[in-house]
Write a structure and sequence with these properties.
Helices cover 37% and strands 16% of the residues. The protein is of the alpha/beta class.
Length: 461
């Protein structure tokens, strides 16, 4: 199977269901694919990157047709798409902050491998409490070496930590969570209440200007989605708790956004979030399945506050099954579902071999952006809001339907791959890579440089 046919197959599988109600026949065409080469992997990550970015770009083109009556051609550069799936930021004279805690990593256990994710202090503390050892990587490795990976996985998760034992794809498919996941669609879509959509004075050159996006996501997948929306003019307000930090990711993903802080455990600050939601067009969130419900903001409550809301959310392991409330990250899902084990066999190594980039996070982020855009298009057609759910594990299942094709490596990055203007981030000047996609008549550009968490007030003005 050729690269282009794998790309086309992924594109067809990624079309959001919200599009089916209004999708013009001519809009079924695929984006024009440019660029050459592929990332090395057991799976076709480059084609997956190009397809997910292309899915978001096509959804924007559909929105422009519904909103403005314009038809826009779409193209995707698969080489740049591969590079954006790693990082888009090129600091000039300053280092990116460190992101990884020494406890985070893969460890050999008595019966296989386990990965710990300890970048958040509470997750690190939970793992160390179960292991009852000092916090150095060496001490953690010694504590794990004589224990069962699967027993440790259960114990650390029960203690509030984040861990994943390495499984084969066959073991995952037979696991209760794997079976539940494969019964889920890529996009779990449903219509919601009717509500207003106020038109801002904008045109197709800045198609999302005036759209208010309330962003309750962290780390990567959700922030990737809202970064894409901000690139076409959406007003994105990201909300984090005051105790949250992700220093290595923030300069990468806050481009184009305003970032505020609210402690939702405090009634007045929860009230403030609700007032922001009343005036939002879109809510994007990535809390665990029951988190907003425990705050009194379940699906029905959100729609009551903002009828017509386009509500898009993600979790790690899926929305049904015994792990539906489990904490998870891209690297953990790769261990659970068989990707890391497949990479180990592909490369003939003796330890887990994950994907070369965080493709589950990245792809899910662009699919979330597509879900938002098709939700906005559907609302313009029928006046109703929508709910769409995605998960990293379901995205992984789609990636694993294909194996890597033989291709040439990506050409080395050059100055021509970067936008010429400097972005004056809150940490220092930087260049960004050129956009990985083009939507005719609408340039991807951002109104604000990357900024720190909590650098803006929690308001729309």
């Amino acid at each position: 199977m050729t690269q282009s046919s794998v790309f086309a197959g992924y594109m067809l599988a990624m079309r959001p269901p919200a599009a089916s109600a209004y999708l013009p026949e001519h809009a079924c065409s695929l984006p024009r694919l440019t660029g050459r080469g592929s990332l090395p992997s057991a799976y076709p990550v480059t084609e997956f990157a190009a397809a997910s970015i292309g899915t978001a770009a096509l959804a924007l083109a559909r929105y422009m047709e519904v909103r403005f009556g314009t038809q826009a051609a779409v193209s995707v550069d698969q080489r740049l798409a591969s590079m954006w799936f790693a990082t888009s930021l090129r600091p000039q004279g300053w280092p990116l902050p460190s992101v990884r805690d020494p406890v985070t990593g893969d460890y050999a256990a008595a019966d296989g491998w386990i990965r710990l994710h300890a970048n958040a202090p509470q997750h690190r503390a939970a793992a160390l409490a179960v292991l009852d050892c000092p916090s150095s990587h060496k001490d953690v490795a010694q504590a794990i070496a004589q224990r069962s990976a699967f027993e440790l996985e259960d114990a650390i998760v029960a203690a509030g930590g984040c861990a994943a034992a390495m499984r084969t794809k066959a073991a995952w498919d037979a696991h209760p969570q794997g079976r539940a996941l494969h019964a889920e669609p890529l996009f779990q879509y449903s219509e919601a209440d009717a509500g207003p959509m106020l038109d801002a004075p904008t045109g197709p050159q800045r198609p999302l200007a005036g759209i208010r996006v309330l962003d309750l996501t962290r780390v990567l997948a959700g922030p990737v989605s809202t970064r894409f929306l901000a690139g076409y003019g959406a007003q994105v307000l990201r909300i984090d708790p005051p105790f949250w930090a992700e220093p290595g990711m923030v300069p990468e993903v806050t481009l184009g956004k305003r970032c505020a802080q609210l402690d939702l455990r405090e009634p007045r600050q929860l009230d403030r979030l609700e007032s922001l939601l009343v005036d939002a067009d879109v809510l994007v969130h990535g809390y665990r399945a029951d988190a907003l419900e425990r705050l009194g903001l379940d699906d029905a409550a959100r729609q009551r506050l903002r009828p017509g809301l386009v509500d898009v959310c993600l979790d790690a392991y899926g929305w049904t099954g015994p792990w539906r409330k489990r904490r998870g990250f891209d690297s953990l899902v790769q261990m659970s579902c068989g990707i890391a084990e497949a990479g180990m066999r592909h490369y003939g190594t003796s330890q887990p071999a994950p994907l070369p980039v965080q493709a589950l996070d990245q792809a899910t982020g662009y699919l979330m952006a597509a879900a938002v855009l098709d939700g906005l298009s559907a609302r313009r057609r029928n006046g109703r809001g929508s709910r769409t759910r995605l998960s990293l594990a379901r995205t992984a299942a789609l990636l694993m339907t294909q194996t890597a094709t033989t291709s040439t490596p990506l050409d080395a990055e050059s100055q021509d791959d970067r936008m010429p203007e400097l972005e004056h981030t809150q940490w220092g000047p930087a260049h960004r890579l050129r956009p990985p996609c083009e939507v005719e008549g609408a340039a991807m550009r951002w109104d604000h440089p990357a900024s720190a968490l909590g650098s803006s007030p929690a308001s729309w003005t």
